[in-house]
Amino acid sequence: MIFTETSHILVETNKPLAFDSPDHLVPWGTANDNSKNYRFNQKIYQIYYDYPKPLKVLDIGCSGGGFVKDCLDDGCFAIGLEGSDYSKKFRRAEWATIPNNLFTCDVTENFDVLIETEGQKEPVKFDLVTSWELMEHIADEKIEVVAANIKKHLSPHGLWIMSIATVDDIVNGVNLHQTVQPREWWVKKLESLGFYQLDNFVTFFNTQFVRGGNKYSGPASRSFHLVVSATPEHAPKAPPTGIRDKMFDAWLGSKSQKALKRWVLGASRKYS
Fold it and tell me: Taking the CA atoms of the chain, what radius of gyration do you get in angstroms?
């Protein structure tokens, strides 16, 4: 893939909005979230250190686009897809700063990410696809289409990394989580669709994901993480981690670290 000054990104789809989804009808996460965790980025760059640059990243269900912005700032080729146009309409979060890299798209319908240069279109194969607490928002009968879309856009060495919540999420009487199932169900479901769990990568990330788990989504979400590949034989190797890295990962995002941050910086505030 060659991206020049005359190139631009296209997302071709017959359904640019998930207009019939609960998340578009009752905006909540799409109206509030803007998750990022630079420690996750550091670990990704370790994994792909010897691979061609720039690293190509697709974040599905990108909400405010914070993770995509961090990737772009680091020199990656990164785009985000979001089913609702709430953040786009209100230029919320990074939709105001990187509008050419964030797109609305219903990922439960067929879509194609392309680079167009002087009238020539080239499909993009991504090294990394992420979906942070997206899959539970997808109805069971539509999961197969989402998986097929991701497989189509994933390089042979690519990884799909996700967090998935396992409880209902009721907002204004509407359950935003359309598929509430335990981890074992999701592992089997994804295997049936050609994606295989790489447990050693979950160990490598050591709680340091963009969302999910007790640290970054809270215990109420009962969420977990999966790292999967459609072609495990071509997947990168999980780098070794030393005791210092393990201790730092345990500290970062812990209750003690968060308490110290509040004590030093004060409580976070939102300004209108």
Answer: 18
Nearest to 13 by CA among 107, 79, 93: 107
CA pair distance 78, 141, nearest whole angstrom: 29
Q: What does the alpha-carbon distance between residue 92 and residue 220 come to, in Å, rounded to a whole number?
A: 26
What's the rounded Cα separation, in Å, for the pair 270 and 272? Answer: 7
**10-residue block means of pLDDT along the chain (272 residues)?**
86 95 88 95 98 98 98 98 96 97 98 96 98 97 99 99 97 95 99 98 98 91 97 97 96 92 74 36
The encoded tokens of residue 79 equal 């785009």
Best CA proximity match to 67, nearest among 216, 266, 178: 216
pTM as predicted: 0.95
- Take residue 106 and report the two structure tokens written for it: 């219903």
Answer whether the bond into residue 219 is a cis peptide, omega within 30°.
no
Q: How far apart are CA 222 and CA 234, in angstroms?
A: 31
Tokens linked to 165: 């919540």
Per-residue model confidence (pLDDT) at position 271: 38
Closest of 95, 156, 129 to residue 227, by C-alpha: 129
Residue given tokens 């300004």 in the structure block: 271
Asked whether 235 and 198 are in contact (CB, 8 A), the reply is: yes
Residue 118: exposure state from Cβ atoms within 10 A (0-12, 13-18, ≥19): exposed
List the domains of the chain with CATH numbers. 7-242 (3.40.50.150)
Which pLDDT score, from 0 to 100, does residue 160 have? 99
